[in-house]
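Researcher: Can you fold this with zinc ion in place?
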Amino acid sequence: MRLYNCPSCGGMLYFMNSACSACNADVAFHPGKDAFVEADEACSNRDEIGCNWARDLADESLCHACRMTDVVPDLSVIPNGALWAEAEVAKRWVLATLARWGWFRAGSPEPLPAFHFKSAQTRDGTKRVMMGHANGVITINVAEADDAIRVRNRQMLDEEYRTMLGHMRHELAHFIFDRLSTEPGFSEQFRALFGDEQADYGAALKRHYAKGPPAGWQEQYVTPYASAHPHEDWAETSAHILHLVDMVDSAVATGLSWPTQYRPPADAYAATDGNELIHVAIDLGMASNQLTRAMGLNDLYPFVLTPAVRDKLEFAQHWLNRAVREPILPASGQRGPDG
Ligand SMILES: [Zn+2]
Ligand SMILES: [Zn+2]
Ligand SMILES: [Zn+2]
């Protein structure tokens, strides 16, 4: 993630800021401008969920990210409101980084995902919530924003890593898959690396939950869940390339000295050599693990990336990066790539 500047004093702002710590100005992130503006253009969800984005259209009260939310949990039940707000933080982060690769930009006429934020806890009792993507709708269980619940689920599912940010990346990758699968060449290349995604999905998941991943899954898959079905392999792999590129981008933005023989690209999202980018990210991940160990925390990036997994990551990096693969339609009022 980039660092930003205060529209009032020019001081540094983090993406999550809604006020400037230097001059106290209230600020809002404007997705169409990829910059912070004065908060008088703020999203109408600012007070309710702390959304720090600006309205991108004069005739809309909500921001680009909040307009993608179609369902919110039962807010009469505590703490659904706080959990929903936490989940929206992760969504805004992932949308802003995907925009760097040309996805879901404010003002673009392309189809956008619809988010359904649900909680099992409702005023009428407990209802089961299934997270996932189907036909453009992404369902998120806001309980996953609760640390205790998420860690319990992570341990139950024997996962190394589980975050709301990871859920957003995973589910949006499913949405993007449907878009990419109509592009010439995608499906052939995908099936050669990941297998045939037309294989029976329900049966595959049933098998995964009954028997777990196959022995030696680490050779081929970034996570155990990726071995369940080619669709899940794509979503897990895509989430990981988004993690890795964001790590490199954030390290470059904050001016960290580089722990590796590989040099980072000036703009991680504009990099075209996926193989080199992945090398840079792996070295950074290992150095960062040492930092988190110094605080007694879990490894920042607790994964091993084999050659087969790196090939898939490189494939995902190539296809996800629309900004390089195809010209982007400029958002209304924005300059084109040559402007
Ligand atoms: Zn300021
Ligand atoms: Zn908003
Ligand atoms: Zn999935």
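Model: Folded with zinc ion in place. The chain has ten helices and ten strands.
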